[in-house]
Amino acid sequence: MIAVAAKKRLGAFDLDAAFEAPPGVTALFGKSGSGKTSLINAVAGLMRPDAGRIEIDGAVLFDSSARIDVPVHRRRVGYVFQDARLFPHMNVAKNLAYGGRHDRDRVIDLLGLDGLLDRRPAALSGGERQRVAIGRALMSDPRILLMDEPLSALDAERKSEILPWLERLRDEAGLPILYVSHAASEVARLATTVVVMEAGGVKRAGAVAEVLSDPAAVGMIGAQEAGAVVRARIAGLDRIDGLTELALAGGRIVLPGRLGGIGTHLRLRISAQDVILSRDKPQGLSALNILSAKVTAIDEGPEGVAVGLLCGADRLLARVTRRSARALRLEPGQQVWAIVKASAVAPDDVSGAT
């Protein structure tokens, strides 16, 4: 369990944030300047709050009322920055050893570093450098891993390269992770809990599937970034068209490409702008993904109308124009049809289920 509460005056900026989160990956999500990095710096001990309390897995790292402030070197915190910050004159093996010697073989195997040990940072790709940086942090035997936008300096290809390793880290490392990001796609793919920050405070916190599918959160997340997270199981493979059939709680959809073997469980992010609504079941469309849904909530914002949907036990999110919302006469409890274009779900929005 992670419990963080921190207040700090930083010039004209006030940090006043508090949240609790269960084990797994907790994403601190928000725009630049919202206070995400300041908050994890407080956890690391790099910034001393004016007031608050920080507890990780039963260990109190800071408590202003009890006058507890554990020194940085005793907090057992692993920190991965935006840039890898590796020593250029050392090879990978020596960079790892600088972090410590805890469970070296397991760390190397977990992050696939065995073939890189003799190489220096200049000979590594951006994704490989970040994997080494993560490994160095793990070698210190941390009680928590802090990651400050570790993919922000990488291009799309390198992000795709490292994301599966981050999933493996989440699933197998067995330690809590605080992950800072302003990319909803990363949060949807990796996080178990999301903490939405704005102007130094926490605006929303909860399970990633609940927060990202909430129409009221679209204004905080951003209309272009909004989208729901659902879990699915591979139910069939169409070898003629190269499609994978997925079973969701509320029906079946197909996506392009072979996404795994039959029975494999996946996690999908479906962007709100890629969901089309209809009052009547569509006929004569090329779209293959048509799901029966019930409207659960409606939130009108400056960039349109966000519509919460329930498809079986899955929550989806749609974003429509005000004109469309009026034409459909949308209201909570209404039965509609949600249409998802097969090609709309990007490859990086499909990952292994947690």
Automatic annotation (TrEMBL):
* GO MF entry, a single one: ATP binding
Q: Which UniProt keywords apply?
A: ATP-binding, Cell inner membrane, Cell membrane, Membrane, Molybdenum, Nucleotide-binding, Translocase, Transport
- Pfam (any one): ABC_tran
Q: Which residues form the ABC transporter domain?
A: 1-224
Q: Which residues form a coiled coil?
A: none
Concerning InterPro entries, the annotation shows: AAA+_ATPase, ABC_transporter-like_ATP-bd, ABC_transporter-like_CS, Mo/tungstate-bd_C_term_dom, ModC_ABC_ATP-bd, Molybdenum_import_ModC, Mop_domain, P-loop_NTPase
For this record, an example GO cellular component is:
membrane
**Domain of life, per the record?**
Bacteria
Q: Which residues form the Mop domain?
A: 284-349
> Which protein is depicted?
Molybdenum transport ATP-binding protein ModC
